[in-house]
Amino acid sequence: MKILVTGGLGFIGSETVLALISSGHTPVIADNLYNSKIGVLGRIETLSGVRPAFYRIDVSDKKALADLFEKERPEAVIHFAGYKAVGESVSKPIMYYRNNLMTTLSLLETMEEFGCENIVFSSSATVYGTPKRVPLYETDKRGETTNPYGETKSMIERILEDACKAFSSLTAVILRYFNPIGAHPSGLLGEDPRGIPNNLMPYIAQVAIGKRDKLHIFGNDYDTADGTGVRDYIHVVDLAEGHVAALKALDGKKGAKVFNLGTGRGTSVLELVHAFEKANGVKIPYVIEDRRPGDVAVNYASVEKAYRELGYKARLTIEDACRDSYNFQLKNPDGII
Ligand code: UFG
Questions:
Q1: Nearest Cα to Cα of residue 69 among 106, 17, 123, 20
Q2: pLDDT digits (tens, 9 = 90+) for 179-221
Q3: Distance, C-alpha 64 to centroid of its chain
Q4: pLDDT for 269-318, tens place per residue?
Q5: Ligand 1 pocket, residue 257 CB under 6 Å
Q6: 298: left (phi over 0), alpha (psi -120 to 50) or beta
Q7: Is the distance from the beta carbon of residue 217 to the nearest atom of ligand 1 less than 6 Å?
Q8: Cβ(199) to ligand 1 under 6 A?
Q9: What is the 180 CA–ligand 1 centroid distance (Å)?
Q10: Exactly one of 149, 177, 203, 312 is catalytic; which is it?
């Protein structure tokens, strides 16, 4: 299938492009390079032997998008493009609402114009807000998000559901990611954050190579076994496979369908630090700090629905992810150029 991948040079997008190529699909990439590097395209080619068609466009630019659709005629879209930093979204809410909503609306209008009826959307477990209990099921209430970034994901889910109700030929598969970590085992593709990493794994990896002094652990007084926050960390290679599996949901019944993509297992910050040390034979110095505002104690997925309906299950372990993240950091100390 020919599939437009918006944000296809990003951390999850690029890994998904690789997975699509290995499954016999033809990805076409649209990316404005806001949070990705052009060098990723060459690395995809090195790993797959295929250089996908690439359009350096802003997905909110309807004219550019229409030109792409005219030329490529994709049968489906996987929509990753969007801003994703929680903290930044609190200080720049309007920028987040404009960008994340406008890209999606332009995309949906263009899809309608060109008769493209399939979309897979990159959503987040953040739409569940503060969990009342775990694991989180797809049927749990959405909304009451804790930041503008999360709210854009929740709003886009609602837009997709409404669009599916109004246009009976449209299918939207909404994928709620838990915490993606790891990298391609080759060390050629991985997470390349700008500036100081917000997320735990890239921070640990930068401490491991001496780029940062020590890790700051945000709170050890949560109601968890060791007091640190618990999350459902999923290897990015598994997450990418989840998108290939999700394409199955485009066949058959039309409408909006939601799936969690996680492992169903929770790992604490300290457990992740120790797993990283063990997998890589390095020491990660850390200090305990106050809790980070907006963080929840425990968050992990129910993964039953994805298994039942898509036959999908994450395969890789925390150790695999620790090894691959370190390998990527070692090979790309200054990120992808
Ligand atoms: N943490 C630290 N130190 C750090 C960074 C994180 O102790 O330097 C802790 C956090 O307090 C938390 C855990 O590590 O307990 C994971 O934090 P991340 O920032 O890596 O991930 P979050 O769970 O906060 O957020 C992630 C994504 C969001 C998404 C959310 C959905 O980054 O985009 O999951 O649940 F919205």
A1: 106
A2: 999 999 999 999 989 899 999 999 999 999 999 999 999 999 9
A3: 25
A4: 999 999 999 999 999 999 999 999 889 999 999 999 999 999 999 999 99
A5: no
A6: beta
A7: yes
A8: yes
A9: 10
A10: 149
